[in-house]
Amino acid sequence: MARIEMQGLVKTYGSETVVDGIDLTIDDGELVVLLGPSGCGKTTTLRMVAGLEQITGGELRFDGEVVNHEPPDRRAVGMVFQNYALYPHMTVAGNLSFGLQSRRPRGSRRKARADERRRVQEIAELLEIDHVLDHRPKELSGGQRQRVALGRALIREPRVFLLDEPLSNLDASLRDRMRMELARLHERLPVTTVYVTHDQSEALTLADRVVVMHEGRIRQVAAPGDVYDRPADVFVAGFIGSPGMNLWPRAAAGDGDPFGDAAPGVELPRDAGGAPWSDGRAVTVGVRPEHLRLAGRHQDDLARVSCRVDVVENLGSHLLVHGSLPCGGGVVAHLQAGAGVVRDQDLVLGALPEHVHVFDTGTGERLGTVADRERIAVTV
Ligand SMILES: Nc1ncnc2c1ncn2[C@@H]1O[C@H](COP(=O)(O)OP(=O)(O)O)[C@@H](O)[C@H]1O
Ligand SMILES: [Mg+2]
Question: Which of 11, 12, 13 best tests ligand 1's pocket when mutated (most atoms within 8 Å of CB)?
Fold first, then answer.
């Protein structure tokens, strides 16, 4: 196993910079997920770690040793791609041991073969495919094939395990199951792992830490709960959650109105007016759909959003209500199934002060919540 350090890692293709200075340290045995929209540079970053892509700038170290110019096999990484192709004409056992054969030492062939069989058996038991060792890939289920691909990478006892969207070819229910199996596998075999996905539920359930990327850069590195509760900026706030956070930019504050334009449909709680962070900068207010509920117009202990309902999506367990604010802009609220909300209805939605996030509109940086005065005071 290894500790991975990326320092100012850059990748350019011609004049285009696709990875733009990644600084990240991954501890021995840690599982880190690179999460971000398609095209943000996740795969390129992973391929640089694997040695499959030349590093344009910066330094990559495994256990303190610079590996920028080490070929992939010297780095001892195990990798599973989205399109993991198994060898169709080989059995499962053959597929698993294929990577080992190049490493078979000269001399004592018989002992090497016995070792190899033992390793195949061990890894097959770990992944619960020991009963299909004689089968060929086409005779396996999707989940079993996926496990063979994992086993083929793990059997070489890699220092670093790299996975690039390994579940995206599976159907939804199988994907959920494999996700839990991967979590269990990592507990039993805690190899330093970098896992790439654009699927936030995979990231949030699997990761020790989530690295949110956007346009070749890191936007936030945090525990899964923290990227949800304390998104670093408006990009992360809008990207995490399904749907993401509602964001309402407000005009710059004026005298006597520390929150800027007095509520284009969004009123802040009564107490928030005296918040010491209102220093005249323009702020953006954000509330997650699931933190909104039906409220009274005069319930001034809550932040309130007035809207007209455009669409009600009934998702069985809950409603997803899409509304328009009086002066433009929209809102999405996650309400109880029995809320009885209908199209064209005028609604007032409310959120508790601790669920009302405030961002600096200029930089996008999150300042805190309306309930979170002290921290915000320090920030400003
Ligand atoms: N070999 C290449 N040549 C030129 N551009 C590339 C190459 N590989 C990737 N890119 C570009 O780099 C960007 C990041 O790609 P990638 O790392 O695959 O993103 P992700 O995995 O996050 O979807 C994309 O804009 C992609 O088009
Ligand atoms: Mg990719």
Answer: 13
C-alpha span between 172 and 102 (Å, rounded): 36
DSSP secondary structure, 258-318, as one string: TTSSS-SSEE--GGGGG-TT-SS--EEEEE-GGG-EE--TT-TTSEEEEEEEEEEEE-SSE
DSSP count for the chain of H helices, then E strands: 10, 20
The answer to whether the 4-234 and 244-379 domains have the same CATH topology is no
Q: Do 277 and 377 meet the contact criterion of CB atoms below 8 Å apart?
A: yes
Q: Does residue 43 line the site of ligand 1, with CB under 6 A?
A: yes
Tens digit of each residue's pLDDT, the chain (380 residues): 899 999 999 999 999 999 999 999 999 999 999 999 999 999 999 999 999 999 999 999 999 999 999 999 899 999 998 877 899 999 999 999 987 765 555 667 788 888 899 999 999 998 889 999 999 999 999 889 989 999 999 998 899 999 999 998 888 888 888 899 899 999 988 999 999 999 999 999 999 999 999 999 999 999 999 999 999 999 999 999 999 999 998 765 544 444 545 446 688 887 665 454 556 678 889 999 999 999 998 898 899 999 999 999 999 999 999 999 987 889 999 999 988 899 999 999 999 999 999 999 999 999 888 887 655 443 33
**Ligand 1 touching residue 37 (CB < 6 A):** no
CA distance 37 to 348: 33
**Residue ID of nearest Cα to ligand 1 atom 10:** 18
Hey, which of 20, 42, 44 would you mutate to test ligand 1's pocket, going by the most ligand atoms within 8 Å of its Cβ?
Answer: 44
Nearest-angstrom CA–CA distance, 49 and 25: 12
DSSP, collapsed to helix, strand or coil, labels residue 43 as: helix
Smallest CA-to-CA distance from 43 within 13, 23, 35 is with 35
The pTM for the full model equals 0.90
- 244-379, CATH topology level: OB fold (Dihydrolipoamide Acetyltransferase, E2P) (2.40.50)
Delimit the domains of the chain by residue range.
Answer: 4-234, 244-379
Query: What is the CATH number that goes with domain 4-234?
Result: 3.40.50.300
Tokens of 265: 């449909």
